[in-house]
């Protein structure tokens, strides 16, 4: 390619990098703003989007999730957009490094999810089951989030109904949560006859059922991240030539 063609290609990629990261930056700012709004004024959020969320705890969790994702997108968008605009090798390298770290973390999480599913279940059981025994029926927000989860996913407890054995809720009401479908005294002697499974197994089933969609989305995100890293490194290297 001639020098003019190379410069034209560099300029085009630079503009695309700026626009792409500007969109990421604006998206991050929007998510961050919504997250802060939800955190500060969750009741108004519930009034407007009541059908999308039926518990305060869900809204709080969504708020933190939006704030974290929004902040990450803001940082990535700023580094990519401003770095390309100012042709800053330092900012472009920082952009590359941040995206690379996120990419590696996603790959590691995927490997752990595939290889150590049993370990994840053991760890979750050790952490969540004691909370179910102590807080379900005591903490209103905690109880509500589990009620919504068990209702929507059609599950009972993390592993199964036995997570509620010797719990505050069972000791107080002498029954299992209504979402556990028949997990009462008559069912207790014959737990295998009870249809509802634990939420962990049900969620895994949902993930396996929609593995194609989830895999496609993950592959698309990974492709975007690889493309972003490649473009940032191209601009970084071309700045040396300039």
Automatic annotation (TrEMBL):
Protein's name according to its UniProt entry: Tetraspanin
List the keywords (alphabetical). Answer: Disulfide bond, Glycoprotein, Lysosome, Membrane, Transmembrane, Transmembrane helix
Q: Give TM segment ranges.
A: 12-38, 58-79, 91-116, 213-237
* GO terms for cellular component: lysosomal membrane; plasma membrane
| Location (main, coarse) | membrane
| Disulfide bond entries | 155-194, 156-180
Gene that encodes the chain: Tspan1
Q: Which family does it belong to?
A: Belongs to the tetraspanin (TM4SF) family.
Database matches in InterPro entries: Tetraspanin/Peripherin, Tetraspanin_animals, Tetraspanin_CS, Tetraspanin_EC2_sf
Q: Which domain of life is it from?
A: Eukaryota
Report quaternary structure and partners: Interacts with SLC19A2. Interacts with NTRK1/TRKA.
- What PROSITE patterns is this protein classified in? TM4_1
């Amino acid at each position: 390619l001639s020098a003019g063609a190379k410069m034209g290609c560099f300029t085009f990629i630079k503009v695309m990098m700026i626009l792409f990261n500007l969109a990421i930056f604006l998206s991050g700012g929007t998510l961050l703003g919504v997250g802060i709004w939800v955190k500060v004024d969750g009741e108004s959020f519930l009034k407007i989007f009541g059908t999308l969320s039926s518990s305060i705890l869900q809204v709080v969790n969504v708020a933190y999730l939006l704030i974290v994702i929004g902040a990450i997108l803001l940082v990535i968008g700023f580094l990519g957009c401003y770095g390309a605009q100012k042709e800053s090798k330092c900012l472009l390298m920082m952009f590359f490094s941040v995206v690379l770290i996120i990419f590696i973390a996603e790959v590691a999480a995927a490997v752990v999810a595939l290889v150590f599913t049993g370990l994840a279940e053991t760890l979750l059981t050790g952490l969540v089951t004691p909370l179910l025994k102590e807080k379900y029926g005591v903490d209103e927000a905690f109880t509500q989030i589990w009620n919504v989860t068990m209702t929507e996913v059609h599950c009972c407890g993390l592993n199964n109904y036995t997570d509620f054995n010797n719990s505050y809720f069972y000791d107080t009401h002498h029954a299992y949560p209504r979402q556990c479908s028949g997990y009462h005294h008559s069912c207790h002697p014959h737990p295998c006859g009870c249809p509802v499974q634990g939420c962990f197994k049900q969620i895994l089933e949902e993930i396996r059922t929609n593995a194609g969609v989830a895999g496609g989305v993950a592959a698309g995100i990974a492709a975007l991240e690889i493309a972003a890293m490649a473009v940032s490194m191209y601009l970084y290297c071309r700045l040396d030539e300039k």
